[in-house]
Amino acid sequence: MNIVFIGAGNLATLLAKEMSRYGLHISQVYSRTPESAFLLANRLNCSWTTSMNKIIPDADWYIFSVKDDALPELATQLKTNGGLWLHTAGSVPATIFEGRTDRYGVIYPLQTFSKKRNVDFSHIPFIIEANNEHDLDALNEVCKLLTGNVHFLDSEKRKQIHLAAVFACNFANHMWTLAWKLLEEKEIPPEILVPLIEETAAKIQELTPDQAQTGPAIRYDKTVINRHLDMLESEDMKTIYRLLSQSIYKTKQV
Amino acid sequence: MNIVFIGAGNLATLLAKEMSRYGLHISQVYSRTPESAFLLANRLNCSWTTSMNKIIPDADWYIFSVKDDALPELATQLKTNGGLWLHTAGSVPATIFEGRTDRYGVIYPLQTFSKKRNVDFSHIPFIIEANNEHDLDALNEVCKLLTGNVHFLDSEKRKQIHLAAVFACNFANHMWTLAWKLLEEKEIPPEILVPLIEETAAKIQELTPDQAQTGPAIRYDKTVINRHLDMLESEDMKTIYRLLSQSIYKTKQV
Asked: What ipTM score was computed for the predicted complex, to two decimals?
């Protein structure tokens, strides 16, 4: 089986490397930026291009792994061919490929990918979809090589999961960025927070986040809340503190 | 050594149990609510009371582990004695005990405690403080039984760490509560997010949260951001989504 990757970002890089580790053959990498295309192709020992016209027409799968904004345009630039067209976007319907190809689908790994960090794929939920049973079976077989955690869900449910993932991953991580900032301001090494973060996440394996909630907001400890608001110098952080404390307290009330 | 616990909440419960596991003798538990006092005393095989007047006067340590709001009042209710008075509050200065006792300090474990979950103390940072060297040494020795991670920091720094911990733990956990809610609304089992949450936290051991940030806000992917805002039904969640996305993007700009 031959696979072409359209995109060479964090997800494309890690997914292509992992597929290649399981003997799947990546034939070509496209990226708008030559450096990214070259870098990934070099790792995979395959060819690369920065021109959609030069993408090989006889691959089995074409995996689009690019910014959502870029996807519609790129889908019109790839010449119609006989392959299965897939994208990796959480929020984009599979039907974006309709009219351009007869065979299409989605391969969405629910994970956060940074190029600098290797990820253990074996527990990552892969959410897949295809417009025909034959391709869905093949997609399932390939995903089962990578993970024990494959889900068949439609575009509507996948979209909701992607939205939830922004809260669960991106926004949670940003809370850590803000915490780092607060400690760096006072010259306290922020790594002191790492065991707390580990335990905060570990609790979720046993308790629901609702049950796991602790802190001044859930106790409605006004003395602490007001002291904290006084301590915060940034207006943005004051607003965030106030809004999230209210939201925690409201969630409890329900 | 004899220890009295004033308070029987999550932290008091887990700390008292852990101290007792290492052969420290808990003599008495005070709580305003008889059920809590009884429950913890029963676990520790010690006496309990709901009256501050009946607290034994000859203990070595008195550990106040109560809501910040309740601390000043309780500190005036305990009769002056010869023991070391400690509290476990992140944001309260050690000097709250001044005038009530000659020996005082703080024992603050930087962790999130839920009664339903046992915690491995061995990596928890303990932040300690005492108003005299002798007690600080003794406090250090006891904390070193429980953890390999003891820090001597003053009340100002501890207060800042507590504020940072609200972001790192309480607010991050609340993001997971909101994510759970989004999935439950659409009848998707929220546990699908657990591997993502694990990896989000695990990244922090290798990368700074700044480096680890992913998602539509850091990419300034307007298409996704607007789609997500349209999908959110709750006005509160829309506001949180907008505010945190802006904050993520601003942090990158700096």
From this structure: 0.91
